[in-house]
User: What shape does this take?
Amino acid sequence: MLDSVREIETPEGISLRLRAAGPLPRAQAWMVDTVVRLVLLMLAMIPLSLFGTGGLGLAMLAMFALLWAYWVACELWLDGQSLGKRALGLRVVNLDGTPVTWLPSVTRNLLRVVDALPGVYGVGLASTLVDPCARRLGDIVAGTMVVHTKETATGHQVPPAPALPLPLPLSPEEQAALVDFAERAGQLTVQRQEELANLLEPLTGCRDTAGVARLLGYANGLLGRP
Assistant: This one.
C-alpha cells in the first residue's frame, strides 16, 4: 500500500526520481473523477431529455464519452492528469518519465474493464500490490505508471562546501553556468559530475572527485557563502 520510487537515468546523465502512486491515492482520484463524470452526465441529460428519442440517443453518446473518452482526453490534453488526478497531485507518464502519448493512454484505459474484474477494481488492486511500481494491469501492458507530481527537491540548491575564490576572472555567463552545474549536481550521477568537472580541469587544476569539490567551492564563493 506504500508508494515506491523509480529511479531513471537520462542519456544526459540526469537521475530522475519518480515516486509511484500507491493504490490509496489512485482510488481517491478515481472517486473524484467518478463524481465529476456523474455531475457532467446529469447536467447533460437535463436539457437532452427535452428532445425525446433523439435526446435519449445523445444522452447515451454522452454517457459513452464520459465512461471511456474522458480518461484519454484528460490524459492527452491535461498533461497526463484527469481532474481527479490533478486534485490529488498525480499524473500518468511513460515508464521513462516522458509524457504519456495517445496509444499508451488508449491501451491503459481500454484495459480498465479487465482491471475492474471481478468488481471494485479487484484485478487492478492485486496488480498494484504486486508490481514494484504499483501499476495496474493496464499500466503494465501500456508501459505507463502513475506518479506524484510533487517530488522532494533534489539538486536544486548548491550543496554546502567551503567557498573558494575563482583562480581567474569569468564572464557572467560562465559564472551562471558554474552555479547551474552546482545546483544540478544532486541530479547527476557521480560519473557524469566527474566527466563535466574534467572538462574544466584548466580552471580547477584537478580531476574527478577533487574537481567536482573545487567547482562546488567556486559556486559557493560566487554565492557569497563563507
